[in-house]
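Contributing new records

If you add data, match the layout below exactly. Sequence lines come first and carry their own label; structure lines follow with theirs. Keep one chain per record. Anything else will be rejected by the validation script.
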Amino acid sequence: MARKAVVLFNLGGPDTLAAVEPFLFNLFYDPAIIGSPNPLRYLVAKLISKRRAPIAKEIYKHLGGGSPLLPQTQDQAKALEDYLSGDQDEYKVFIAMRYWHPRAEKTVKQVANFDPDEVILLPLYPQYSTTTTGSSVEEWEKLAKKAKLNCPTTSLCCYPKNAGFVGACVDLIQQKLAEIEGEKPRLLFSAHGLPKKIVDAGDPYPWQVEQSVIAIVDKLGIQDLDYGICYQSRVGPVEWIKPATEDEISAAGADNKSLMIIPVAFVSEHSETLVELDIEYAELAKSAGVPNYYRIPTVTTHLKFIAGLGEMVKSLTIGQLQSEKGPVICPTTHGACECRKRNKND
């Protein structure tokens, strides 16, 4: 029987209003987010976090003064550990947040104390981006090397079409459609946006978001379904990938179409869903003349989602970085795909 440590990667979120500014600094100081060299990156991160902190604090006041992301990730960790408990191997699930506690530096030490035979890095980002999974894996590898955590490490880079993730999304959409029987809203699959220059540099994230949506729509099996993909949470003056969620909401109002918003790149609730989607975009929809506005919950601890994660964990090849299918799934045009880069270097 092997001892296996599963490390869940997530973004993290401030747990108090006082934590908002340092959380934002950690975010913008990440070279995967702002690629400028130091000391310029440090100064830019300080400036942006100081300027954005008052706005962000108002957002987190809607959430009781802190993000619910860690408690929800803890629930996911427990659910996954329970799912894996019937396997012949021994699994223990840990959490490593990228920009707030528990940080990877602490989690590496906890994993080392567990003394596993294998470490499995499991992002709670179904679609790969250099700014999320890529950044987390890079940080983990540096810290693990420093801590002399030398056991084989297996990394899952992405799972945009995983049957468990797709099945959970479909269940939640079907439940809402059943509640509003007779209505045919436009389905908007909303994902967190990225600056266009990151995608132009080969980041496969939008392509993987499209793969998730294709799989969900196919499984829904609704003839002539009215749906679209859009991107939210734009900040700063640079150009971001389109279409923007705000623009698609306004378009639905002009078309006199009700909307069902599906957060397709988030697997837990946080400020982008509970405030941006539920409050800010709901208000925009009302002012834009959208007849009815519905929002689908994130998959969180849905049984199918947890089972999907668990089955992937059990099927991974030891010591490799791989997609849900094992080999590279991204087209050759996406040079920033981590699997592609590593296969090229091997």
